């Protein structure tokens, strides 16, 4: 399954089944496939369709509902029950469909200058957001939370404004001035109370409270070069945030409040240094106050479109990266030490057996992690998930 044949990638976690169910949807020029991943060693293909030239395929968590857009009819959305093989409905729009997002209450269709909000139960259009700033990439995010069912989309084509819309009460919730440059990525955490953003420069990632829009965290991905952020993803409980790009490095940040420095010369020097930043230019001050990556992943490729997710598989924190080169990569994340993550397995997305990998043969199992959850790992620090 080569890079050219992968036209759509969608990786989601099912909130109903906790952290143990990952669903991967892969669209290709010859059809689309659904995979389920409950263990590191087994990628189970649960469905395959021969619908040609699929450019968008989105599955509603672990259900049978799927939304499909094809290259042959880019303005038409088909909603199907894939297990029954039946089409539930189809809708045509005035322009090319650039993105489709869905949760248990709403289905969002994103065009370049408008957004359609459908009721997931009967697919009726509840609201249309018209004359949005040009959004040629179809950038938007929909929270999976039933309690905080928000939609985020760019509020400007020239600067990094985020519009937050309440899709239940059908009203604007906030406008967040997130970046100086146009947005490149947005994602909600599972609770719908945090929003992570990145701009086209790709050097700084920010996390805001929702719906208030208060900046909670600011992380620096790098300073040497600007990159294109491909994917942002929170872990299910919101303690970790991953960022992948068109480079070979994935960064994982830890969302925790810094502890009070001990009364040592190092702690004293740190306080003096931070106090002195009030006299420095704002860009220099930001460099001192921004958090750095807690963990990193070195991918065996660069330049491919990819998506990432953080999940517990077999009680161990993992980073999943699905890439347009036709592979799914799984890495272990050490929740105490961080550092460089270990590649544990790679799966081909065409379902064929994967030959032994030299990287894996070089002792990737040398540092087995003890079985634990993100929450128990987080308890050793100062951050309490869900309280921020």
From TrEMBL:
The keyword Nucleotide-binding does not apply. The keyword Repeat applies. Coiled coil: none annotated. Its main location: membrane. One of its GO terms (cellular component) is phagophore assembly site membrane. It comes from the Eukaryota. Belongs to the WD repeat PROPPIN family. This is WD repeat domain phosphoinositide-interacting protein 2. It comes from Oncorhynchus tshawytscha. The gene is WIPI2.
């Amino acid at each position: 399954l080569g890079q050219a044949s992968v036209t759509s990638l969608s990786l989601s976690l099912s909130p109903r089944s906790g952290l143990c169910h990952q669903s991967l949807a892969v669209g290709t020029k010859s059809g689309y496939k659904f995979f389920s991943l409950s263990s590191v060693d087994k990628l189970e293909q649960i469905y395959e369709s021969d619908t040609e030239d699929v450019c968008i395929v989105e599955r509603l968590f672990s259900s049978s509902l799927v939304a499909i857009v094809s290259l042959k009819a880019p303005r038409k959305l088909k909603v199907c029950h894939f297990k029954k093989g039946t089409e539930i409905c189809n809708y045509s729009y005035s322009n090319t469909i650039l993105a489709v997002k869905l949760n248990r209450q709403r289905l969002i269709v994103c065009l370049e200058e408008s957004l359609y909000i459908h009721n997931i139960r009967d697919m009726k259009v509840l609201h249309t957001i018209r004359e949005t700033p040009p959004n040629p990439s179809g950038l938007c995010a929909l929270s999976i939370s039933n309690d905080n069912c928000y939609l985020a989309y760019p509020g400007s084509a020239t600067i990094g404004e985020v519009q937050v819309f309440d899709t239940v009460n059908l009203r604007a919730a906030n406008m967040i001035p997130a970046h100086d440059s146009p947005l490149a990525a947005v994602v909600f955490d599972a609770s719908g109370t945090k929003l992570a953003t990145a701009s086209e420069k790709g050097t700084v990632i920010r996390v805001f409270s929702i719906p208030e829009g208060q900046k909670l965290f600011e992380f620096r991905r790098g300073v040497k070069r600007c990159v294109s952020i491909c994917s942002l993803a929170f872990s299910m409980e919101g303690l970790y945030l991953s960022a992948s790009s068109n480079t070979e490095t994935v960064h994982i940040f830890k969302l925790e409040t810094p502890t009070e420095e001990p009364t040592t010369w190092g702690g004293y020097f740190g306080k003096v240094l931070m106090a002195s930043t009030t006299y420095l230019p704002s860009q220099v001050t930001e460099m001192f106050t921004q958090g750095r990556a807690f963990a990193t992943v070195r991918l065996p490729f660069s330049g491919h479109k990819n998506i990432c997710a953080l999940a517990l598989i077999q009680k161990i924190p993992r980073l999943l990266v699905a890439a347009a080169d036709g592979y799914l990569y799984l890495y272990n994340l050490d929740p105490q030490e961080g550092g460089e993550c270990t590649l544990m397995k790679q799966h081909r997305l065409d379902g064929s057996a994967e030959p032994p990998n030299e990287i894996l043969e070089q002792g990737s199992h040398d540092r087995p992690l003890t079985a634990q959850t993100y929450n128990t790992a987080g308890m050793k620090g100062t951050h309490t998930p869900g309280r921020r």
